[in-house]
Amino acid sequence: MDNFYDVFNYKFEHVSHENSEVYNPFLLQKCAEINVEKSKNDEANNDRNDDFHKPSLFISKSRCRHANIFTYIITYNFLVYNMHQMSEEFFDPFEEEKPKPPEVSIERAERARDYVAGMEHEATLTGLASLSLFNTLKGADSAEIENVDLSNWRTEFERVNQEESWAKNPRNILPAMGLELEVPEQTVSPEESNALKLLGIDNSPETNYRKWHEIRTGYSYSGMAQAYTLHEIYEFKDKAHLGIVREIIKKDTDTGSEPANKGGGVYYPDSDSFATSLHVNFGVPDWVNKKDDLEENSGLKLLSAIVGCAFTSPDRIRERKTRGAVRQKEDALESTKNTSDSPASGENRFVRFELRIPEFKDASIYRMLIEVQYIVSAFMCGVAQEEKKDPLKENLSKTWDLFVHEATELLSASGLQAAHFENVPPGAAHVLENNDHLRKNARSLFTHYAQEIKKQIEIAFPRN
After folding, report:
1. Average confidence (pLDDT) over 260-275
2. 68 falls in which pLDDT band (50, 70, 90)?
3. pTM for the full model?
4. What was the pLDDT predicted at 26?
5. How far is 255 from 261, CA to CA, in rounded Å?
6. Nearest to 37 by CA among 71, 73, 7
7. Which residues of 5-16 are buried (b: 16+ CB within 10 A; e: fewer)?
8. Is the CA virtual torsion 193, 199, 203, 204 positive or negative?
9. DSSP labels for 176-212?
10. Which of 119, 245, 289, 312 has its CA 20 to 30 A from that of 260?
11. How far is the C-alpha of 327 from the C-alpha of 297, rounded, in Å?
12. d(Cα 28, Cα 262) in Å, to the nearest integer?
């Protein structure tokens, strides 16, 4: 029974237990190689020391000449229970072979890019248009693009284009926004990275944290555009292949078994504790006082905490790489909401801030991206430094005050404060894990105020 697959099968047939684990065949491969190597050494050196009493992996195969299976079992269990004490280099050659990513058609990406370049659309949607068309053309690589039925794609894209045109107007107080999505580096092949860049979606290895790859969507004027772009990135990666939608890849909570491989998806053994980062960036308009330290703004910290309660898993809150809820930067791009007409000597710097607590784990993030833009616009009205605000900004400033009051009460009822999500994330995660009503109430509060703010903006600035 020297073949490790025989050992693998034998363990299931003859050495099963009531709550049998799923044995890792690659650890079994390591067992086989360890014991075969030791057996060769023993025979060469005629060394028959008492191997079973040594704290060693190298158990003599010859000592179990009539019970080889038990040698494998002992070695296997030693590996399982001591993996955390061994160096990564020890296991690197025996890591599970990564599933081959789907082939990426560069030709299709070029066709989609060139087609979009020749059509009228908002410039901020070029990446979305190219990427969504690339996904639409799947299965039609050899067909002339003029012969492919694009009616559904055109209808769907035009809806987003109209929303973007409405939000783009400088009189519309909705802030520009963009996304930074961090995914495990092994889920983005060099070919896929190049194809995304060709389609207008910037991406690169994360510079500060190894083993992560960052995908940046570029800014848009509507939350709808960001939601659609994120969805198309998900589709581009053949859905679950990104390894980020935990409802698909995590173990079944009832049986503890691994799910079927869906959509070419990758199952990560530690996915129950796996959290993917999604930073949501907002450009700060000219009419907001950019001298304010937004990173320390209590209102933004509160908004971040409510986003955490409503849309972020306890795992993500517990395992974030950084603690700060908000980050302010002075590298925002010029847009219709941020222009160079502002006063000089430092006042024309383009500022953005990012909410850092979200994650991409299920479809609720699409809803969040649309709603959070409205709530952030009310926040900006609340901190705007103007001698006299226009009626819309004045009303939204009052709406923001109401949101702050209700959000504070909601957290307090569960024994939480906004600061807990930065300073004591394990405690905040523990509360969320044991309080389903908090998540439901936070989502309800979030949606209620987003809809109220949206109504006020549409009254003041109606769509055509």
Report:
1. 37
2. low
3. 0.72
4. 52
5. 16
6. 71
7. eebbeebeeeee
8. positive
9. PEEEEEEEEGGGS-HHHHHHHHHTT-EEEE-SSSTTE
10. 312
11. 11
12. 26
In sequence order, the 6+-apart residues with CB closer than 8 A to the CB of 19 are: none
**87: its two tokens:** 């160096």
Number of alpha carbons in the 13 Å side-chain half-sphere of residue 132: 23
Token pair, residue 139, equals 């299965």
The DSSP secondary structure of 100-158, one letter per residue, reads: PPPP--HHHHHHHHHHHHTS---GGGHHHHHHHHHHHTTT-TTS-GGGS--HHHHHHHH
**What digits encode the pLDDT tens for the residues 285-318?**
888 876 678 888 999 999 999 999 999 988 888 8
What one-letter code names the amino acid at 389?
K
The residue with tokens 């949101």 is 403
Whole-number CA gyration radius for the chain: 27
- 264 neighbors 238 (Cβ within 8 angstroms): yes
Per the CB < 8 A criterion, the answer to whether 137 and 148 are in contact is yes
Band of residue 267 on the pLDDT scale cut at 50, 70, 90? very low
Contact in structure between 359 and 275 (CB atoms under 8 Å) = yes
Question: Range with the lowest mean pLDDT among 2-11, 41-50, 86-95, 258-267?
Answer: 258-267
Single-letter residue type at 439 = R
Alpha-carbon span 225 to 372, nearest angstrom: 13
Show the tokens assigned to 450. Answer: 């987003």
Question: Of 165, 161, 178, 164, whose CA–CA distance to 219 is shortest?
Answer: 178
Question: 211-259: per-residue pLDDT in tens?
Answer: 788 999 999 999 999 999 999 988 876 544 443 333 333 434 444 444 4
